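Notebook B, p. 112. Complex prediction, attempt 2.
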Amino acid sequence: MASAWLHPGLLVIAAGLALALLRGPARAAVALAAPLVALGVVLDAPAGAAWSGTWLGLQVQPLAYDALSRLFAVIFAIMAFAGGLYALNQKSRLELPAAFVYAGSAIGAVLAGDLVTLFVCWELMAVGSTLVIWSAGTAPAYRASMRYLAIHLLGGVLLFAGIAGHVAATGSTGFERMALDAPAHWLILAGFLVNAGAPPLSAWLPDAYPEASWSGMVFLSAFTTKTAVYVLLRGFPGTELLVWVGLFMVFYGIVYALLENDMRRILAYSIVNQVGFMVTGIGIGTEMALNGAAAHAFTHIIYKALLLMSAGSVLYATQKRKCTDLGGLFRTMPLTAACGTIGALAISSFPLTSGFVSKSMISQAAGDEHLLWVWLALAAATAGVFLHAGIKFPWFVFFQKDSGLRPDEPPLNMRLAMLLFAALCIGLGIFYQPLYALLPFSTGFVPYTGSHVVVQLELLLFSGLAFFVMLPMLRRTLTITLDADWFYRRLAPVLVTAGFLALRAMGRTLAMARDGGMRRIGAAALALHGPQALFARTWTTGGMVLWAALLLAGYLLVVYA
Amino acid sequence: MSDHWLVRPSSIRLLWRVFIAVLALTVVAEFLVAHHPHFRIESVAGFGAWYGFLACAGMIVFAKGLALFLKRPDTYYEDGESRDG
């Protein structure tokens, strides 16, 4: 059985390194075969730790399977396959290898049975994803990749400090459920949340991802944030703080996406929004909610990749990314428009799409727990998803005005990747049992009841009405919206420059004071010891005798008086 | 090319009529299915419809309000950062 000794994550990483050397059909064969082999291994492997040992005196389990890790490894392998297919015609020689190292380390992270292995994979993901952004080859992409790396190294430091504290306190490297009862656990949570795109650092995601190439962002959307969802599911289920963090992310994503003009930044904000639903579910923490969060991560990877493939095809064909430059593309790119619309319906959780069968579990859990405000917020956010991504993306890119652009459909491999994921979006919406069977708990949840479907359709369609009624307020402008990244992109450089100038001014003042002081000491020394000064001039013999006599008289007085 | 079926004024009028008919249908359908409400507010007639509409209108207005303070030209960061590329 290959599953006992073959590590699917390492396999995909090795394939990535091989891809750097291969060209032509061999490159295509490896890019398509490696994720499929990894998928087969993950599905075949029995539950439990497949690898274990000691490393640096620590117990490690680099390969361990259970229902939750298998679910995430399955979707990561599927994503690597579809992403590889979509990116086959990518000219960059760096991007696909980097993306496979990134995907493989994400698979390694979810199959890690201990915190040490998790940390190693976590950092490898940061390196792989930075290289994916970097390989776009533009100056803005380079700068964005450096900002991205800085934030993720910060997250890595927080995580490392937390893990070190946890191991020191408990002596165990096992990755188990943690309570927020020690600083080390707070640090681990903070490290996880940085990668999830949680506040206050959400801005790294819409800042960096849209600078990647047309194919790069497809990979980026899948792994980092969903690995974070996985570790939160395993480490912090039922942590109430996560409900509020998640709801903040949900509305942050909607509001910022509504104001955004760049089509892929709209989709980047909507990643934060969708991860917010999952984080909220993890915070609610019942079996229904955790199933919902896990299932939503699974379906989200597919429909978000599909949306970004369709946006990537538009970017590939037109070299344009702003809604103000786009529009009317459905005429010559009908397949891309149809696939983008299917992705948009799935992200909006329309009945018969994958988003519906996953997200309704999170709402159901909020209802079952009688969390009225959480439930109302989730319902409003469901309508808001249709507003900011479900209609806004396809409308401004493929419909609205006629931009005059008449681009062709993208090459065959890109079309096939889109068709595959569009089929999965609808297939999982109708035949959801295989997905439910992979979930960690069995809850017997039935997504398609008359009440669920009708209320969902009301929410979504009236959200659509709001969009078209208020369309003048949503007209796109050539603007961005300031975010927390302003602090490190604008304020910090200004402060550093100002601090530098202040230091220089202070140095100059000190130097002047020093020079002035030295001059005064010099002048005083000159006055006393200079060539004609008091202590240096030649004295007369008579004067010396007088002073000597006075001194001796002084002695007499001191001794006998 | 502007006379593609989808963009003709007559078809846009037709699409609006169909859309409004579908909206009405969803509200009517609410009375034909069994409900198991968790909260009292769910039982108010057309809850999904008015709540969805108002929530979206609220979010759009909030976003526009936020934009008054946080909106900048999309070249905002390029000016400062292009030096050190």
